Structure formats: structure tokens, C-alpha cells
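User: Reviewer 2 asked us to show a designed sequence for the structure in our supplementary figure. I'm pasting the C-alpha cells here. Could you produce the per-position amino acids so we can include them in the response letter?
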């Protein structure tokens, strides 16, 4: 049986700030087939960065390690790997996942000018643009 995990389990596994919950999370990961939803990764990244002040590079390394664990499946692993590489260029992880989800041959529209600028550094990303004002080609 596969067990999907919530953000709090993943945070405990990575941060180990509660001995009881950390041990229980480790045991679950060691004895079960684990599925990590992409939404859990987004929330976990936010918690680690905003609450625990973990640098983005360390979070990316932790997520890469997670992807390498036996019996762990991460939803949309290819897109997650793309997002981890994009985040290394300065793109926000959630934005990178949004960009990774863009259909092949499509483009991504946003009002976030920082995202537009940073996405230009990613050669294999979909084109990112800010929608023009009405009537402006």
C-alpha cells in the first residue's frame, strides 16, 4: 500500500525539530511506499523558507535527496526536477512549478515582472510574458 504524506510529515523529516514526530516520520518513510503530492512540495518549500528560514539552495538539495529515496514517488517528478533547476537561477519554486506545468509549445502569462525577467534565463522554459494593455499588439 502506498501512503501519501502531508506537509507536516515532510517538514518533520527534513527539519527534525520534534523528536517524537521526526522518529515517526522516519519510520513511516523507512517502512512504507511513500507518495509526495506536488502541492505538499509547494507548501513544504514555503514553510521551510518562510518559517524556518532555510535557504533555497538547501531546500532544493533536500528535495533532490527526497527524490532519491527508495520507495518514494514524487508527483510529476520531471516537472519538479525542472522547477528545482529553475529555482537555482533565482526563480521562486512555486513559480517554477507553474512554468513547468505550461503545455509544450505554449506560453505563460503573468503580471509578475520579476518572473518574466528571471524566466528569460531559463533556456528550456516556455516563453513568459506580461499581457499587453487592451488594443496594444
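Assistant: Here is a per-position design you can include in the supplement:
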Amino acid at each position: 500500500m502506498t501512503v501519501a504524506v502531508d506537509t507536516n510529515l515532510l517538514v518533520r523529516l527534513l527539519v527534525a525539530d520534534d523528536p517524537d514526530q521526526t522518529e515517526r516520520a522516519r519510520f513511516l518513510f523507512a517502512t512504507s511506499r511513500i507518495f509526495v503530492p506536488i502541492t505538499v512540495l509547494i507548501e513544504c518549500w514555503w514553510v521551510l523558507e518562510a518559517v524556518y528560514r532555510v535557504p533555497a539552495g538547501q531546500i532544493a538539495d533536500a528535495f533532490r535527496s527526497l527524490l532519491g529515496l527508495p520507495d518514494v514517488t514524487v508527483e510529476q517528478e520531471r516537472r519538479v526536477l525542472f522547477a528545482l533547476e529553475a529555482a537555482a537561477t533565482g526563480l521562486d519554486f512555486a513559480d517554477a512549478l507553474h512554468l513547468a506545468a505550461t503545455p509544450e509549445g505554449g506560453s505563460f502569462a503573468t503580471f509578475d515582472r520579476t518572473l518574466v525577467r528571471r524566466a528569460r534565463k531559463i533556456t528550456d522554459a516556455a516563453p513568459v510574458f506580461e499581457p499587453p494593455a487592451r488594443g496594444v499588439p
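For the response letter, you might also mention the following. The first strand starts at residue 2 and ends at 4. Residues 2-129 form a domain with the Rossmann fold fold (CATH 3.40.50).
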